């Protein structure tokens, strides 16, 4: 089985593939202070909860935006899975042309999501990733990674608001029944959920104009289901695009060739 690991600043997403089928997924907190042994034990325990044998993992692909963890994960994979992980590097991967000014600055997680999205939905395309940040990825009709708009993420915004306001409570992130909140919780839910839905509509509209067409819109990330369902501008939701992109990346590196041509 192939283990894919998308390491974000706040959360780490993991997925186990058997061939092209995504069999298991997990979402855990990114922890900078774990040692390789601690990560290995943690992964083993996590797999056990889903009935996955550690010995079944024979390959690992990683997209990481936390460089400090790269050698830690490499050591854990070598010791516990007896395999050297493949790290997706935006500037050297060959699956999607990156035509930004400095490809090495592009997040590996965004490139993985773009690869997965282009494979499943074609091009042109706008991928909206709801994570620590909300990222709007533009993919040209030719399948190129044109660039990205990055805004503060949903949970980051909530934490900042509540942290600076003494009387505002923690809220469940869900859409209220109406835009006009009749109590504090509904008011916060309205502002957050509908506010981010409106942000999505506004930025997508601008990107579409700049791309000169009506690119489809695909939402991904942990909060995609909550926000994207509140706007008709989103055509599809796939929370695991980065994991799919890592599977395609591993296949291209391990076997050669372009999976988009298959």
Annotation keywords:
262 residues, alpha/beta, Nucleotidyltransferase, domain 5, five-stranded mixed β-sheet, 7 helices, 23% strand
Describe the structure in your own words.
- The protein has 262 residues and is of the alpha/beta class.
- It has two domains: 2-87, Nucleotidyltransferase, domain 5; 103-245, Nucleotidyltransferase, domain 5, CATH 3.30.420.
- The protein has helices at residues 36-49, 70-80, 108-121, 154-163, 184-211, 224-228, 241-255; strands spanning 2-7, 11-18, 21-29, 59-64, 86-87, 125-130, 133-139, 145-152, 216-220, 236-237.
- The two termini are 21 Å apart.
CATH superfamily of the largest domain: ATPase, nucleotide binding domain
Report the uncertain regions. none
Number of helical regions: 7
Strand order of the largest sheet: 3-2-1-4-5
Shape: globular
Order of SSEs: EEEHEHEHEEEHHEHEH
Largest sheet: 5 strands, mixed
- Specify the structural class: alpha/beta
- Rg over CA atoms, rounded to whole Å, is 19 Å
Q: What is the oligomer described by this structure? A: single chain
Mean pLDDT: 89
- Counting structural domains, the number is 2
Q: What is the top-level CATH class of the largest domain?
A: Alpha Beta
> At the third CATH level, what is the topology name of the largest domain?
Nucleotidyltransferase, domain 5
Helix content: 25-40%
Which architecture name of the largest domain does CATH use?
A: 2-Layer Sandwich
Range of strand content:
15-25%
- Number of DSSP strands? 10
Give the N-to-C terminal Cα separation.
21 Å
């Amino acid at each position: 089985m192939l283990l894919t690991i998308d390491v974000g600043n706040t959360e780490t997403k993991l997925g186990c593939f058997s061939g092209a089928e995504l069999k298991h997924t997990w979402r855990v907190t990114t922890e900078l202070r774990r040692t390789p042994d601690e990560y290995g034990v943690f992964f083993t325990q996590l797999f056990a909860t889903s009935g996955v044998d550690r010995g079944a993992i024979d390959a690992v692909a990683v997209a990481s935006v936390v460089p400090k963890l790269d050698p830690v994960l490499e050591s854990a994979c070598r010791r516990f899975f007896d395999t050297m992980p493949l790290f997706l590097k935006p500037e050297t991967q060959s699956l999607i042309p990156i035509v930004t000014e400095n490809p090495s600055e592009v997040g590996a997680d965004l490139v993985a999501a773009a690869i997965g999205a282009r494979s499943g939905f074609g091009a042109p395309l706008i991928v909206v990733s709801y994570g620590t940040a909300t990222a709007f990825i533009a993919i040209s009709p030719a399948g190129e990674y044109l660039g990205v708009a990055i805004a503060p993420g949903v949970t980051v915004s909530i934490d900042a608001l509540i942290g600076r306001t003494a009387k505002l409570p923690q809220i469940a992130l869900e859409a209220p029944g109406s835009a006009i909140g009749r109590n504090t919780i509904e008011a916060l839910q309205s502002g957050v959920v509908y506010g981010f839905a409106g942000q999505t509509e506004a930025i997508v509209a601008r990107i579409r104009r700049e791309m000169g067409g009506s690119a489809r819109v695909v939402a991904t990330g942990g909060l995609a289901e909550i926000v994207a369902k509140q706007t008709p501008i989103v055509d599809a939701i796939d929370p695991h695009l980065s994991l799919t992109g890592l599977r395609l990346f591993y296949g291209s590196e391990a076997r050669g060739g372009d999976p988009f041509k298959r």
